[in-house]
Amino acid sequence: MIRKLFIMKIVIAPDSFKGCLTAPQVSEAIEAGFLLVFPSAIMEKLPMADGGEGTALSLMTSSNGKMHQVSVLNPLGDQIPSEFGIMGDYQTAVIEMASASGLTLIRQDQQNPMLTTTYGTGQLIRAALDIGCNKLIIGIGGSATNDGGAGMAQALGAKLLDVNGNQIGFGGGKLADIDKIDITGLDPRLSEVNIVVACDVSNVLTGKNGASYIYGPQKGATSDMVEVLDRNLAHFSDIIKRDLGWSVEDIPGSGAAGGLGAGLIAFTGAQLQAGIDIVLEAMDFANRIQGSDLIITGEGRLDYQTSFGKTPAGVAKIAQTQNIPVIAIAGSVAKDIDKLYTIGINAVVDIVHEPMSLEVAIVNASELITIAAERAARLVRVGLIKGKFDD
Q1: Is 32's pLDDT higher than 90?
Q2: Rounded to whole angstroms, how far apart are CA atoms 385 and 2?
Q3: Residue 310 confidence (pLDDT) above 90
Q4: Left if phi > 0, otherwise alpha if psi is -120 to 50, otherwise beta: which for 77?
C-alpha cells in the first residue's frame, strides 16, 4: 500500500495549446485531472511560455503581477488599445511585440511589410519606462513587420533622417531613404535598464537566410518585395554600423521579427536569449520546483522540434538536474520524439483518445486534457502502489 503520510507535491508547468487554450487554462485542466486521483496532493501551477504569445500572461499569473493598458499605434499606424505585463516585483515589465506590431492586428488584405511599422512596440517600451520598470523582457514573435526596428527606434526618440534632414516614413520600404541616424533624442532611460529579448530563431538580418527572405512572404511580401526589403535592411545595417558603431547584420537572431532583433540591439543595448530560458529565470523556476515529486508539462504538439528550446524541453532539463520525473501532455504527438526521453521527459500522453477531427479536439480541448491528466495520474498511482513509496 502507499505510505499514508506521503502527500505528493506536483508542479504543473505547461505552455499554451496554440489557438486553443492559454497556459493558465491548460494548467487548470491538468490540475482537475490529477485531483481526481490525488485529491490531497499539493498542486502548484506555473503556466509557462517560451517568449511567444502568452508570455506576458504566464509570467503575470505565476508572479501575481498585473497587466497595464496603454494606447499605441498598430502596424499600419492606427491607434489601438494594447497592454503589457508588470511582474509581481513591480520592477519587471513583460512586453509582447505582437500586441502592438503583430500580424493578427491587421486583416490579411492589409499585410504589407513595405508599410508596416514597429512604432507601437517602441511605445510599449516607453510606457514601461514611464512607470519605473528597470528590467524589460520583450517577446518578439508574431510580427507583421520588416522594418529592422526602425519604427521602434523612432518611438523611443531616435531620428532616422533622409538627405533633406526629415524623418523617414513607416515601413520596410522606407529604410532606403535613411541618410543619417541621430540618437541625441533617444530616451536616456534606456541606458539604465536591463533589456532581454526572447528570441527563438537564429536567422541573421539579411541574405537568403535573413528576415526578408525567410519570413517576408508570411507577412504579405511578394518575391519582388522580398528583394527590396532585403536591400533596405542591408542599407539600414550599414548606416547603423557607421553612425552607432554596432555591427548587427550577422548576429544570430538579428533577423527575428523582421529585423527587430537587430534594432533592439543597436538602439537599446538589448541582449537576445532563448525565450524559454528567459521565462524560467524570471519565474525562478529551479528554486520553485525544489522538493517536488512530479512535474507535468505540455504543449499543443510534441515533435522533434520540442527539444530545441520549447517549453517542455526547458522544464524537463531543469527537472532532470533535481531528479524530478516529468510527464508531458500534448494535443498531438509525432513519432520522432525519442530525443525527449534523453532530456528529462519520462513519459508522454496525448489527449486524443478516440478518432476525432482537429475542430472537435479544439472545441473539447479542456475536457480532453483533464481526461488525459487523469489517465496519467492513474498510471503514476500504479507506480506508487508497486512499491516506490511502500512502507
Answers
A1: yes
A2: 6
A3: no
A4: left
CA 223 to chain centroid: 28
Q: What CA–CA distance (Å, rounded) separates 1 from 390?
A: 6
Most confident of 163-177, 188-202, 270-284: 163-177
- Tally of CB atoms within 10 A around 318: 19
Task: Spell out the CATH class of 55-276.
Answer: alpha beta
Residue showing cell 512604432 = 119
**CA–CA distance, 77 with 255 (Å, rounded to integer):** 22
Mean per-residue pLDDT for 191-200?
Answer: 92
Joined together, the cell numbers standing for residue 316 give 524537463
Mapped onto helix, strand or coil, the DSSP state of residue 250 is coil
Q: Please, is 162 exposed, middle or buried when counting C-beta atoms within 10 Å of its C-beta (0-12, 13-18, 19+)?
A: middle
Distance (Å, whole) CA 183 – CA 180: 10
Going from the C-alpha of 145 to that of each of 37, 258, 326, the distances in angstroms are: 48, 5, 38
Helices (H), the chain: 23-37, 55-63, 98-101, 119-130, 150-155, 211-215, 223-244, 256-268, 275-282, 285-288, 311-321, 358-363, 365-383
Amino acid letter, residue 243: D
CATH of domain 9-47+305-388: 3.40.50.10350
The predicted structure's pLDDT at residue 387: 58
What amino acid occupies position 218? Answer: Q
CA-nearest of 131, 135, 132, 188 to 157 is 188
Predicted TM-score (pTM) of the model is: 0.83
Domain ranges in the chain with CATH number 3.40.50.10350: 9-47+305-388
Q: How confident is the model at residue 57 (pLDDT cuts 50, 70, 90)?
A: confident
**Spatial separation of the C-alpha atoms in residues 94 and 83, rounded to whole Å:** 10
Report how far residue 169's alpha carbon sits from residue 179's, in angstroms, rounded to the nearest whole number.
13
- Eight-class DSSP state of 81: E
